[in-house]
Amino acid sequence: MTSSRIEKMGNRTGLAGLIDRLRYHEASRQGLGLILLLVCGYFTVPAGESRIFFGFALAAIGQVWRIYAAGVIHKNRQLASTGAYSLVRHPLYLGNFLILAGFTIACGNWYVVAVVAVFFLFYYPAAIRYEDHKLEGIFGDEWRSWSRDIGGMFPTSLKWKSNPDAEWNMRQSMLRNGELVYTIFEVGAGILLWYRAAG
């Protein structure tokens, strides 16, 4: 899967090729993102209840956003362009950002802030480029027309476009797209963070 991503995005060699292999490796991005939640929990700065509550609230908003967006997407079968997708092209990535930003704030450790920032800058621009390239190949002019005024991971406007024909599906979000597993993991990482901050 990684090699096919690299071929589609330009098959470079040498050090640049090695960096591409790392950046376009989806399982590494997802796995490291989850590990960083545990890092936030383990290396949290003691005390700071208001900081922790604010961070958890931001992370919860991110996960609720992911659960919503994952329940209306039909991956690679139908271009999602309404609801969450009327604000950003990749709302799941926005959810990931809010979750990790929330945990990082709750953690309060500047070394962890630096590591999370490097993680996002290393992986997410490449992931957005690949997904945009793939979706443009699948949906062509429809994708180009929709994406012209829509930000990749952060909204450039707040023009919400609803679609009465698009229904949110809990089974699709929580089971098929894996949000139940992510939610349970995040709750566990939050408990670890709270326990470490109290100790």
Topology:
Layout: H1 2-9, H2 14-23, H3 26-42, H4 49-70, H5 91-107, H6 110-139, H7 141-147, H8 170-176, H9 179-198
Helix pairs in contact: 3-5, 3-6, 3-9, 4-5, 4-8, 4-9, 5-6, 6-7
Structure description:
It is built from nine helices and no strands. The protein is mostly helical. It has one domain (2-198): Four Helix Bundle (Hemerythrin (Met), subunit A), CATH 1.20.120. Helix 4 packs antiparallel against helix 5 (91-107), helix 4 (49-70) packs antiparallel against helix 9 (179-198) and helix 6 crosses helix 7. It is globular, with a radius of gyration of 18 Å. The termini are far apart.
Explain briefly what this protein structure is.
The chain has 9 helices and no strands. The chain has 199 residues and is mainly α. The model has no long low-confidence stretch (mean pLDDT 90).
CATH topology label: Four Helix Bundle (Hemerythrin (Met), subunit A)
The H/E string reads HHHHHHHHH
Ranges where pLDDT stays below 50 over 5 or more residues in a row are none
Please count the beta strands (DSSP E, at least 2 residues each): 0
Note the main sheet.
Answer: none
Overall average pLDDT: 90
Text of the CATH class: Mainly Alpha
The total of helices stands at 9
Shape: globular
From the 3D coordinates, which CATH architecture would you assign? Up-down Bundle
Strand fraction band? Answer: under 5%
State the end-to-end CA separation. 43 Å
Any idea how many domains? 1
Computed Rg: 18 Å
Q: Which structural class matches the secondary elements?
A: mainly alpha
Helical proportion, percent range: 55-70%
